[in-house]
Here is the input.
Amino acid sequence: MSLKKFALLSFVAVLLLGACAAPTATTAPAEVAATAESTAEDAAAAPADAEAATDPEARYAEILQCVEENLPASTYMTNDLLPDPEAAWEPMECATVDKIRVGMPWVLNDEEAPWYNAIEKGYYADVCLEVELVPGGPGVDHLQTLAGGAVDIAVAAGGSRIPAMAYSPTPADVVAIGAFLKHSPYIWMGLDPNTPQDQPSTLELKPEDFIGKKVGLQSGSDYLFDFLVAKYNLPKDQITIMEAGFTPDPLLVGAMDYIGAWIVNQPRLLEEQGYMNWTAFRFSEWGWDGYSDVSAVRRETLDENPDLVKRYLAATYQGAKFLVENPDESADIAVKYGVDAQLTKEQALRRFQLQETLIQDDADPGLLIMSADKWNAEMAAQIQYDQLQVDACK
Here is the structure.
């Protein structure tokens, strides 16, 4: 296939791709900091502070402790309304039906398979809910529409947006109630030149592999480059950062060595064109991890109508469980409901394969359940690498 034809197909495939930009944290405006000279006595009196200033790991530990004490995850997330995974599914008797609008993390494609299943298999109807899935996409921020009351529940592609909103100078009181993806799907992806195109690569990328390379990033994901450089002491001036879109075309024409992507999206697009030798640097394995496709509600909804939230979570849980247990039928359902994308069953099945390791976690086993420790760790990383500025943990 010619590169020109591939580029055309890639453009069409953008709608197929899920929310594949790096989840972007809301950065509070930086305050002007006063500069003061430290005296010898100050340095001697605070050796821990001096160590934290020069040792990234010590600094992270200091920030994490501050987060746990002053900005704990319990202030913006809860597992309390998740269903008992051992409970048998029993439909309710419905005197009335509640109509709710749920903002999706991207356009309607196969990313939203659990929610499609919950509609198609009648799980929402079983708990007296009529659910309208409101598409997301470029320029649509359903956490903002949630805060403004335009949707009743929002599913955020980047969970880090929730604590960032909670502790911004103009906070929005939204609460995470369940996460479909337990690990960040964000990667830097390239083609392995030492592996034949028709064979899978076994290359395991390391941070230093990007030295001397050109990396294409979508707008708003530069902070992940800054994180990598700072954490692994990379020479920033020896890595060229370029503006990239959502398709892997630049890799094929040699314009870039790596691009920012989601593990469930761009790799399968390359595979469809015969490029099996892709390789991925997973940020979740190198110190930047977090939840994705996170359901959130306004706190007033949590306080005033917890039963509605429980019913939503119970049915969504069943939809996710059905996906895990019945991927083939779930792929058929995704093709039916994913009306914003030119989606095939094979594409949906490949996504389901690629996300298997993302939806469950030994640290917080069970679908949708979250760990306060993971939320705290991600928030500490945001603060350490200047993606979130809060007075309590400067």
